# Entry
Amino acid sequence: MEWEDEAFVLSARAHGETGAIVELLTQERGKFAAHVSGAASRRMKPFLQAGAKVIARYRARVSDQMGAASLEPIGEGPASLFDEPLALSGLSAAAAVAAGALPEREAHPGAFHALEALIAALAIPEIWPAVYVRFEAGLLQDLGFGLDLSKCAATGALDDLVYVSPRTGRAVSREAGRPYHDKLLPLPPFMLSAQGGLTDGDVKAGLDITGHFLEQFVFHPLNRPLPPARVWLLDRLGEAGRL
# Structure
């Protein structure tokens, strides 16, 4: 088994004296783990950070066993964010959520492109937390658990959608949801439209929605909690007044 593909590093853990087991999100083949020799070297360490973009060249003698990969960096990678600890927290959370949620060796190009869009936005402090919410919503969509925010689940109305049903992931209008507002999830306008704008509390509301459905549909069936990096991201966004 042999292939070459663009990929983002999701995680790397030491293996032996000089190697590492690296989890990659590839563009065409989904999540792959591979052994990378020489990973402990000073040259390789910078592009084994979560979020680094690489060309991966993979080879395995047997297709169902872990193979080896060589990695060639593309661009500057996470090094450009070293002076932005909050953005690095967002990148770490995104990589951890993708690593935990995506199945092995199953193509998910939507997840790859969603992570790519988030990484591009991390340099813009004013918008990336909202883009992070869209990343998680896109991941849910790519896994088959997409939110339906096109119309009210109860009435079919297209306007004044302000809630999401925590059971179905479908939007609910203000009027239809009024009797049940304490049981519904608030829907921030930016999740309906890129022109929706952001107000205080919108990012928190968006993260509550995507976190709820990631737990319900993805992590709970795997008997896992949401990754700690994702929990820490909420804490750090709150401390920075960005929720």
In short: The mean pLDDT is 93. The radius of gyration is 19 Å.
